[in-house]
Amino acid sequence: MNDKKKSFLRLVSMFTVLVVLFTGTSMKTSAARDFQAEIDAIEKKIDANNSKKSDQEKSVAELQEDINDMQDQLDVYNDKIGALNEDISAKNQLIGQYEAEITQLENEINQTNAQIDSLNAKIDETYDLLVERMRASYMAGETSSLEILLGAEDYESFLTRLELVQAISRHDAQVIESLENEIKSLNEMLESITQKKTEQEEKKAAIEAEKAEIVSKRSEVQSSRNEIASKQATMEKKVGQIESVISKLDASTAAYREAIASIQAAEEEYNRQQAALLSQGSGTIEGGDSIGDYPVSSKGMILPLQYSGVVASAWWGSYSGHKGIDLITKGATGNTYGKAIRAAAAGTVVFAGGGSGSSWSYGNFVTIDHGNGVSTRYAHCSSVAVSSGSHVAQGQIIAYVGNTGNVYPRPSSSNPHAGAHLHFEVIINGSRVNPEPWIPGVPHN
């Protein structure tokens, strides 16, 4: 099984586990789930992946910078090698020229030696003919040159015979002398050619020595280049390995995001189910003047906090996303904490307990359906005093002010009641509306 297939199977397995862990099972009802906690847990894993990815990308960037630096060095070495190759090529061209000249001189030497051998052969032939002629004359019993001269009948005949003998002798001597002179000339030419050949061979040897030095230098440069190229290849391999890790982190993050999408889908279904529990109608309830000591608004609701000095610390739209009114009692820090929260109108408790999923920021809260499409929500309670499904009367204590969920400032060991307030919402047919028209007027702090 190849690595890609193994990686794919691992991702599928991981995604399956995430779905099982974070989308719930038949043993765990959606109402009991803390969707946001599940999402936060996965987001931490994504953050861890992103942190690892960032480290890996930093390593890749550093390696790539080193690779680029090495490439610059390789370019310099390649240029040097190229220049040395050009020098070697030029030396090879000179060596080729010298070799051609040496070959030509060797041909000339061979031709001259052949001419000398030919002349020597002619000299030998001339000597041989002279000796043969003398031998033949002797064997035939012919008289000597002196006898030939003395046998002349008169002086004129003597001179003629003398001249003939001298001419024959001169001719033979001249032939031999001429051949010897030609041989001497050829030997001088041969010496000159041989000297030129020696000079060319010496020049060739010098160029070959220069070439050998350049080749040696090129070998050193090539060795240095190869060493850097090897390091670069090792780094590139490491980059590939890191990029593979990054790819796996990306795949893991994608699987986590798929799991989050699945959780969010489950959360939406949960919210839909919760919304379905609320009544639908004209969005009105009956109003009144008062219930005991509790003034009632024209829309039929009382103020959830029945204390003097109640003010609004934040109201509808006072900051982005604020869809309610925050009520506190004036006084020192923690003065509001623990105050009783009363039902703004009579109705049925739809939910009472700790928030989860999209409602995690509410902390402990109570939702009451007043009928005819009107509902109210009371958030950040320190504790609740009613249970889901119970019927409550207007003004009945349903919970106590606290600082659970998303409050500011956050409570701490030195100030455990920091951020305590009542976040109050009015919901009409499933949509939150400005609650202030529904309750008796309250000043803004």
What does this structure look like?
The strands form 2 sheets. Strands 3, 4, 5, 6, 7, 8, 9, 10, 11 and 12 form a 10-stranded antiparallel β-sheet that branches. The chain has a two-stranded antiparallel sheet with strand order 1-2. It is an alpha+beta fold and 445 residues long. The radius of gyration is 60 Å and the shape is rod-shaped. It is built from 4 helices and 12 strands. The protein has helices spanning 3-22, 35-139, 145-150, 155-277; strands spanning 290-291, 294-295, 310-314, 325-329, 340-342, 347-354, 364-371, 374-384, 391-392, 397-401, 422-428, 431-433. 20% of the residues are buried. The chain folds into 2 domains: 1-277, no CATH class; 290-438, Glucose Permease (Domain IIA) (Distorted Sandwich). Helix 1 (3-22) packs parallel to helix 4 and helix 2 (35-139) runs antiparallel to helix 4.
